[in-house]
Amino acid sequence: MVVGGVATFRLGAKPPAGDWFASELARVREDPAVRVALVDARGAPERPSLPADARDALARHDLPVVFAFDGALGGGVAELALAADIRVCDAESTVALGRPGAWTSRRLRTLVGDGACYRLLRAGEALDAGAMLACGLVSDVAEAGEAFARASGVAAVIASRGPIATRMAKEAIWRGLELPFAEALRMETDLTLLLQTTKDRAEGVRAFLEKRPPQFTGE
């Protein structure tokens, strides 16, 4: 379902098959009307694993990905959450990773560092919503039952921005994390220079001068 530039994927009680999830992500990536992917994992039951294709497709997706969940997150659904860019939970949420594999451990270290949060999750301990927010594992905590509404608001804000700029911002963040600091800054500068050549950049300047909302086209 696509509304306002946001494509929503509902996990529900049935786990997504790797091929289905990957193909759906590829399909919305080719749709110029889609600017953000929103994964709705409310009530998704804990599962020992999900197809790696689903996780990898989400991690590689070049559109911004927002992940909403509530309740106890664990297993393969927790891995899927780690593959997203922004995670939003509610105040009653918890997360436990069991025995994380190599991909999960590496992603977790990138997200939260080597501190207490990382050590607890590596040991299989559960973190509550406050602990997740404190260590940066989630970006926001909503009131009970409001995770999806909060995540939808975040996705809508991102979708209102220039789509080329948001994709390049995502690229700068994730690629930059793997580079020495000086090289990451150089890459960010290169991407900024590329943005200066786009029609959306010119539209943003015009809209600012004319004091009106910009109409970005992704060009």
Describe the overall structure.
- It is built from ten helices and nine strands.
- The protein has helices spanning 18-29, 52-60, 75-83, 102-112, 116-122, 129-135, 147-159, 163-176, 181-195, 199-209; strands at 2-3, 6-10, 36-40, 65-69, 72-74, 86-90, 94-96, 127-128, 140-142.
- Helix 2 (52-60) packs parallel to helix 3 (75-83) and helix 8 packs antiparallel against helix 9.
- The mean pLDDT is 87.
Summary, kept brief:
The chain is built from 10 helices and 9 strands. It is α/β, with parallel strands linked by helices.
SSE layout and pairing:
Blueprint: E1 2-3, E2 6-10, H1 18-29, E3 36-40, H2 52-60, E4 65-69, E5 72-74, H3 75-83, E6 86-90, E7 94-96, H4 102-112, H5 116-122, E8 127-128, H6 129-135, E9 140-142, H7 147-159, H8 163-176, H9 181-195, H10 199-209
Parallel strand pairs: 2-3, 3-4, 4-6, 5-7, 6-9
Antiparallel strand pairs: 1-2, 7-8
Helix pairs in contact: 1-2, 2-3, 8-9
- DSSP, total strands: 9
The low-confidence parts are: none
Mean pLDDT: 87
What do we call the CATH homologous superfamily of the largest domain?
2-enoyl-CoA Hydratase, Chain A, domain 1
> Which range best describes the helical content: under 10%, 10-25%, 25-40%, 40-55%, 55-70% or over 70%?
40-55%
CATH topology name of the largest domain, in short, is 2-enoyl-CoA Hydratase, Chain A, domain 1
Task: Output the structural class.
Answer: alpha/beta
Rg computed from alpha carbons, rounded to a whole number of angstroms = 18 Å
The name of the CATH architecture of the largest domain is Alpha-Beta Complex
Strand share of the residues?
15-25%
In whole angstroms, the N-to-C terminal distance is 24 Å
- Major beta-sheet overview: 6 strands, mixed
Q: In which order are the strands of the major sheet placed?
A: 1-2-3-4-6-9
CATH class of the largest domain: Alpha Beta
Basic shape: globular
